Structures are given as structure tokens and as C-alpha cells.
Amino acid sequence: MTPHPDPSPAVHPGVASTLRAGLDELGRIMPTDLRTLEDILEYRRVGAARTTTAAEIATRLGLSADERTDVPACPVTVFSTGRAPAARVLFLHGGGLIAGCRFDGADVIARHAEALDLEVWTLEYPLAPEQSLDAMIDVVLEVIASAGTDVPLVLACQSGGGGLAAATVIAARDRGIHLDGQLLVCPMLDRAERPSTRQFADSPAWSAISHRTAWSHVLDGAQTLPPGETPDLRGVPPTFLDTGGAELFRDSILDYTARLSAAGTAVELHLYSGAFHSSDCVLEDAEVSRDAHRARASWLRRVIAGDV
């Protein structure tokens, strides 16, 4: 019997017209299709030239920025309002777990600090290929242990940091460490090929080739599975997830949401039509980006109130 051919990818839904210029610009600036260590180093170099600083973030958002000298696991910068915090949020930056620094995307959370009385810790966790996922998780768990339990504690992330955040939450569950929630912004959760992986395989925001390369380094020598491939998701704290309709991670995020919900986790999901991967950071003032900012703030407010 002749086997049936693989089903064709679904029709590309396309990027919203108001976001296309931002995606085109990203494609002109950032390297794509990372295959080798040299490609990763160049990706890091270009990203570092585009990043911001703690002082710039603090000035723009009206916050103070301080370095924690009592957290030995990794460098940690704390953005705060100067008031007693209503919650403490630990942020893990994007970059596919192979690139980036703690200030990349930190304002995804820090922009809400003033309105919600948040204390935002942003972490310089180790990267692959220098370290594996296991070592990254250990570092984040050490920072969690330093963060205290005096106020609600949430682990938040963007993109590649989402794989680390979700894996750390599972490790924390297994070790009896309490977290009040996880906020996963367009997280990188697994290696499975799905329709969205094929639809957006050549996306300038993050390609399928870069995705495979990143996971191969992150998991080299690691015992831990990517969170989306972890079979038992029971006991995970309340979770917020969002994704663009036009990004490679879309279907893995939708699948993870369904599995968390089936395992009994209180889950909130937002799927933004026409948004590409991390488009709210590229075009912060686009209407769909503003909607994403509001949704995250609303969820955090409800976590603080114990209403999720």
C-alpha cells in the first residue's frame, strides 16, 4: 500500500499589516537560520549591540534599578518603585537560551511595576552551549530561594526564557518549592514539529533551523526534558500564556495550554491574530501589542489578589 503523503501545511495566515514593517526590519538586522557556533556568536554580537541598559529601563519607567549582591547564583538586577512590593516577579529573558542578556525584554514586566507595585528581578542565567538546561534550572532555583516568601512570587519570561521558566516551575513542583504563578510570553516549550512550525519555518523572528540548533545545544548532556515534552504536568501553579497567530511556537503553546488545563492548572491563554513572535517588543505601540500588555497586567493583578 502506498503511504499517504504528509498533509500540506495550513494556509499561512499572515502578519497583520500594521506589524509587517517591524518584521521586515527585524529580518534586515538579526541573523537568521542559526546552524553553527559561529552563527550563535554572531547572533549574540548583533543582539548585544541592540540591547538596552538598566538605567535606560529605569528612567523610562520611573523606577529604581539596583544590583543584588547577595544572590550568588547569577547577576540579578531589581527594578522597584521604592514602595513595599505587592508581588515579586522573576524575569527570564528571550534569545532561544543561546543568546541575550537580562535587560532584553525586561520591560515586558517592568512596565507594570508602578501600577501594580511589583518588584521585578531580571536574571542573567547561563546560556547554551556553555551550559545545559539542567544547569540553567539550578541557577534559577537558587535565585528563587533568595527571593523570599513575604509576597506572592511569580516566574515570568519571554520566548526562550519561557522554556527555562516552565521547566523550572516543574522542577520547583518536584522539590516542594512554592510559586504563585508563571507568566509565559510566547514561550519556547518543545521540539515537536507542528503546522505552525512548517508555516513559519523561515520567519525572521525565529526560524525552524534556529529552533532545532538551539534545542540541540540546550539539551546536550541534560537529563531534563523540554517542558512541553514533560509527561506529568499536575501540580503546576496558575499559568498565563500568550502567542501570536503568526509565529512558529503557536501550536506548541496551544498544546501546552490544553495539557495544563487537563492536569488541573488554572490557565489563561491569549492568541493574537496577525502577531509574530515577540512582536509586542518590536512594535510596542501597535494596538495588538497594547492589548497584550493590558492582558498581562490584568492577570498579574488577579494573581496578587488571589483571584486566578
TrEMBL record:
UniProt GO molecular function: hydrolase activity
Domain Alpha/beta hydrolase fold-3: 89-278
UniProt entry tagged with the keyword Transmembrane: no
Entries under Gene3D superfamilies matching the protein: alpha/beta hydrolase (3.40.50.1820)
Pfam families xrefs: Abhydrolase_3
SUPFAM superfamilies reported for this sequence: alpha/beta-Hydrolases
Keywords attached to this entry: Hydrolase
Record-linked PANTHER family: AB HYDROLASE SUPERFAMILY PROTEIN C4A8.06C, ALPHA_BETA HYDROLASE FOLD-3 DOMAIN-CONTAINING PROTEIN-RELATED
Protein's name in the database: Alpha/beta hydrolase fold domain-containing protein
Organism: Brachybacterium tyrofermentans
